[in-house]
């Protein structure tokens, strides 16, 4: 696992938590469900890279589309100009999203998508003459990327601690997750929807006329795969609508098939005012993110006598030709391979597979929704996360790529995973747990 040159100046993404510092794993090729390591081993990818390679690695249609586009036109600005594929991709995405969400703004990452949505939310109220509505509401345990906007609304204290001051005017909803109620539940837990009503308390304390938006991940991802209780998102939607607050779903993980439907908003039947997306949008092949906004949000800026000509937002690489080509080929792949249609069947098989780990050593909880799962382990005294970290290392040595999030093993395989491969993931984890103290 060692790097080719320990003295090389490459500064990798880091955590100051030394317990998680490990030599980088070096990969040199990828195909379908597998990575090839620098030392020639095949590793089954149970994380879809980093929750993004939803149709499997090096999908030929996507590779070809990127190659063709690179040979045709490398770059065009998206300020006052564009290229046809950007329009076609926006339309395809809008057609996948729930009705009413029909405008797509392109970014280059999930973090930029989140910052974009937060900026749009504030500006939306401003252009409507409601300049006091600036407050943003996030949620405990949430991850919304590494920009200052996303960090400010996110709810993982360790990520926020060292980078302040962050945005003021932010409050956080409590999280619904409580192990005592939740252990080994399948899909969405039946309890806890009432915790959405905490939003009503925040509204009463601050006054609705000061609140711009609420942002939540429909399924908390990096915080440990925590599905929303049945009815929770519906209640958030109802409270936001009643008070004129915009609701943003961060679907960077849940978008593009992860829950067996194009978006969690489709799968769970709740339509926000904006969706942020990235990752599976291009199957991980080229960086791209986006905000899918409602007609009402779009119209506030772009139509009517007070069109917001002085507002300014956009990126050099918004709607990059390579990303648009990859995005179009990705959607074609999902549709032609039937990955959305087969979602319910694949997700049901996945649920059966991961719950076979109930009773394995140290397993404290198992959660699943769509093609996501977390195996929560008992925390080792004085060393939270250590057992999960050691288990993930053993799985890697045994040929399966799994990720750690606190005391959880998290799983997010490509949607092309077969029942046999699901079995391999589960067997490898069970063996690793038997070897870790
Ligand atoms: N939001 C969510 C829910 C995410 O999971 C992530 C990335 N894991 C992001 C935002 C940030 O995306 P990126 O790393 O592409 O900036």
TrEMBL record:
PROSITE patterns the UniProt entry points to: AA_TRANSFER_CLASS_3
GO molecular function, one term: pyridoxal phosphate binding
Recorded superkingdom: Bacteria
One Pfam family matching this protein: Aminotran_3
Gene3D superfamilies reported for this sequence: Aspartate Aminotransferase, domain 1, Type I PLP-dependent aspartate aminotransferase-like (Major domain)
GO BP annotations listed: biotin biosynthetic process
Cofactor(s) the record lists: pyridoxal 5'-phosphate
Keyword terms of this UniProt record: Aminotransferase, Plasmid, Pyridoxal phosphate, Transferase
Keyword Transferase: yes
Database matches in InterPro entries: Aminotrans_3, Aminotrans_3_PPA_site, PyrdxlP-dep_Trfase, PyrdxlP-dep_Trfase_major, PyrdxlP-dep_Trfase_small
Assigned protein family: Belongs to the class-III pyridoxal-phosphate-dependent aminotransferase family.
This protein's name: Beta-alanine-pyruvate transaminase
Species for this entry: Tistrella mobilis (strain KA081020-065)
